[in-house]
Model the fold of this input.
Amino acid sequence: MCSLVQKYNVAGPRYTSYPTVPYWDTDQFSLQAWKEQLAQSFKDSNSKEGISLYIHLPFCESLCTFCGCHKRITKRHELELPYIQTLLEEWQLYHEILGERPRIAALHLGGGTPTFFSPSSLDRLLQGLFIRAEKTPDFDGSFEGHPNNTQREHLELFFAHGFKRVSFGVQDYNETVQKAIHRMQSFDQVKAVSDQAWEIGYTSVSHDLIYGLPLQSVSHMEDSIQKTLSISPQRISLYSYAHVPWIKGNGQRGFQDEDLPSPSLKRAQYETAKTQLLAAGYIEIGMDHFALPSDTLAIASKSGALHRNFMGYTHQHSRVLIGLGMSSISDCWGAFAQNEKNLEAYTHLVQQGILPAFRGHILTDQDLRLRTHISDLMCHFETQWTEDFEELPTILAALEPMAADALLRVHSNRIEITDKGRPFVRNVCMAFDARLQAKAPKKTLFSMTI
Ligand SMILES: C[S@@+](CC[C@H](N)C(=O)[O-])C[C@H]1O[C@@H](n2cnc3c(N)ncnc32)[C@H](O)[C@@H]1O
Ligand code: SF4
Done:
């Protein structure tokens, strides 16, 4: 495994979309084209599967120095209501494009820290959203809670609005690691909020853990997993630490590069955690996720119904994902659009009645073809085709070394990633990424694949 890690540990995308954001053809994008594509996809899907909604709540009181999310560090809670007002105005702008009352199948609130906002501010947001929409019968509502500031009132408020899932950021329980990433939080606190969620009636509590953090060792990982197992969350996201300081400025510079574990040590952390989780009855899902067999994600993974979008893995598929809030990305399968990443620029555009998207991409026929293969590989570790396609010879040639290393098997109309090859799924997808193959990035854009 060690030499394979050395061989394949390159900078590569995490494929929450194809084409990946740095490869969007922004010159071909216009707000008008985005609105037309969105309206068409919405018309085709609203009455069937409904739409997904993502809302970005960017504020955090304190900076965690590992964090790769779009956030604004502040203690000024007076920002809450104006931001919510802007979100609702943006939702109104979408309404005018959609023309028909949206049916919301999935709603996820992420950040930043949604629980930075008071329960009453969040209530105002949710009331405002649902005045103009309805929930599908199997509505899936979820939010990200910071264990240090999630109050019982937050959990009750979301539950009253039909939310049944919550994910808590844990990362690692070791104090040395917590100090290095500037995020002190106790096991007791995480256990208390998880227990409260279950008492209230949540059916899925998820914990986010990260491997590859500064000063983290295999035994820290082992201990964090042991502690996590004693709480038994339904889902565990075991993320590979994405060290991307060139994108996030100083945010990740709370430690030295030499404090980071080597690629092989990082891989050993993942393998140790995986062994513990499988032994405890969790099922490995896609890349970096685990769930108990009764969880919707595990059921979807087993039945082949798993999907992946900008929110990560989902058990439901909606052609339309609308992202509200600064930096959010929307996706209507044939096109992507991303909102302004700067809070003031985002607010300014919405206040002028303009959709706040500053860039996007309209997918070509080739993009749509490759997107399906990459999504299948990320979700099911295999992909197939009914007839040969233009890019196939180049893809097969790029996959040859991985097939020789037994990371995958190539059949006449199918590619299957082996158990040994699963850690290298991003590398396999890169062979399908025609845009990346055509033009290697001039500077580092992505985190390392392992
Ligand atoms: C928006 S944050 C979580 C919500 C809340 N702000 C909190 O910290 O608890 C979502 C998750 O992204 C993951 N994450 C953030 N930065 C990351 C990075 N650089 N590499 C890997 N995972 C990261 C963390 O596991 C984090 O819990
Ligand atoms: S990990 Fe969460 S709380 Fe920490 S800076 Fe990132 S978004 Fe904010």
Observations:
- The two ends are 11 Å apart (CA to CA).
- The CA atoms of residues 16 and 309 lie 5 Å apart.
- The chain has two domains: 23-362, 365-438.
